């Protein structure tokens, strides 16, 4: 089966299952980019798409388009959902699913924490708010 027809079939199935507009936009945006990448590299048929092609696409997105690890994982998630749909619909076999052996990118996330002075300043603010306003929200925020 040609990739463009598989994408169309996936889109119709998701519309039938009433997937939200935001989710549909996310799926179709990723699949459109992936399809363009495959066309550029002359991968037209589903049988030609291997785990290596998927990895090369994700590397391209990371290096050429400067996508961060979270975006790469989001795109991989959309591709996995697409290929799992094709497997469930028996268009491809589980062995032919190219995303099955592709792992998510490990993101090194640095979370900045508040300093002791910032925490003290926030606590002072909410304590003052609680004494000034005698409503439920002031007590809740103070707590």
Keywords:
143 residues; mainly alpha; 64% helix
Range of helix content: 55-70%
Uncertain segments are: none
The SSE order reads HHHHHH
Strand content: under 5%
Helix/strand class: mainly alpha
Largest sheet: none
What distance separates the N and C termini?
Answer: 60 Å
Report the principal-axis shape: elongated
Mean pLDDT comes to 89
Radius of gyration: 23 Å
**Number of DSSP E strands:** 0
Describe this structure in words.
This protein has 143 residues and is mainly α. Helix content is 64%, strand content 0%. The chain has helices spanning 3-16, 21-40, 51-63, 69-88, 116-132, 136-142. The chain is elongated and about 70 Å long.
What's this entry about, in short?
This protein has 143 residues and is an all-alpha fold. The protein contains six helices and no strands.
Strand and helix map with partners:
Elements: H1 3-16, H2 21-40, H3 51-63, H4 69-88, H5 116-132, H6 136-142
Helix pairs in contact: 1-2, 2-4, 3-4, 5-6
């Amino acid at each position: 089966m040609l990739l463009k027809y598989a994408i169309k079939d996936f889109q119709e199935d998701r519309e039938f299952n009433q997937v939200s507009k935001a989710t549909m936009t996310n799926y179709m945006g990723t699949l459109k980019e992936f399809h363009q990448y495959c066309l550029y590299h002359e991968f037209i048929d589903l049988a030609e798409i291997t785990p290596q092609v998927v990895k090369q696409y994700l590397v391209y997105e990371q290096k050429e388009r400067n996508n961060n690890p979270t975006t790469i994982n989001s795109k991989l998630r959309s591709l996995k959902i697409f290929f799992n749909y094709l497997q469930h619909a028996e268009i491809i076999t589980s062995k032919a699913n190219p995303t099955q052996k592709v792992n998510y990118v490990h993101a090194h996330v640095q979370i900045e924490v508040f300093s002791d002075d910032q925490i003290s300043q926030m606590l002072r603010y909410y304590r003052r708010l609680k004494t000034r306003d005698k409503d439920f929200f002031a007590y809740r925020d103070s707590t």
